[in-house]
Amino acid sequence: MKRVIYSLYIDIPRNELDLFDEKVLGKNKIPINHATKHSFKLHYPKLLACKHTYAYETGVDFKMFEYDSNFIMFKENFNKKYPFVTSYNIVNFYKLHLLYKLAEEYDEILYLDFDVVPVTKESFFDKWDFQKGICVYDNTYKVQKMEVISEKTNTIRSPSSKYYNTQAMLFAHNLSMKNNVINTGIIGTNKKYLEKLNYFGSFDEDISLMTELKTDTSFFPKKIVDFFGYDNETLFSFKLEQNKVPVQWLDSEWHYFFSSQQFIPKETKLIHAINKNFDLIWKLYD
Questions:
Q1: Which CATH architecture has domain 3-285?
Q2: Which pTM was predicted?
Q3: N or C: which terminal CB in the chain sees fewer CB atoms within 10 Å?
Q4: What ranges do the domains of the chain cover?
């Protein structure tokens, strides 16, 4: 059984960063993308080392992917076909592209966003049975009801936007609109379920549909449609439902969503530092 853990760090040039949260943050606030860029550079050595260490301690390979010739080629091809998609979204499609590339060599694959910090020696592969379905985290609990959403409460990256965008895609295909908001910061899977997911199988058609839905107010009101985009997690949710892919929902031990709260439960195994408060994590890690 060949297993691998991989991560991805792409330092997007500042002039390519989309300021998706300006309306929510207001004036004189640092956009999330700019703060993230700075934080990743500052904590890069430890963020890389902690993943190397976790792979070594659990006896699996580790692969780190960065801004190299393969990514440049992927991005150039993507820009030619879909020039309207942001660099941020291209990076997130690239990380899923890498899942499929690694599945050519490995039986089981664990992806960790670069802001994920393992604080355990217990093997993810031993805890989760990859034969039972793709392992991902469910963010549906963060979806806002449509009536309370406004341009001051929503962004193109919010769980609400992804939830309703997925619903619109499902409706366009005459499928049940029941779906979950997937967070792809941690993914555990194998070749069998990647093939069933068929993420890139009809990519041109899927992007075309996402483009159409950005201006279609026949089903959802404009205040919802305005936040539709080209998000990898929206498409992931859609593909899970379209292709009826079995899912194992990660619990908070194995995907701790570290955001507005300022504490980390002692039973946590993998910390996803949404808030980029790495200083607090290193106190626990060290």
A1: Alpha-Beta Complex (3.90)
A2: 0.94
A3: C
A4: 3-285
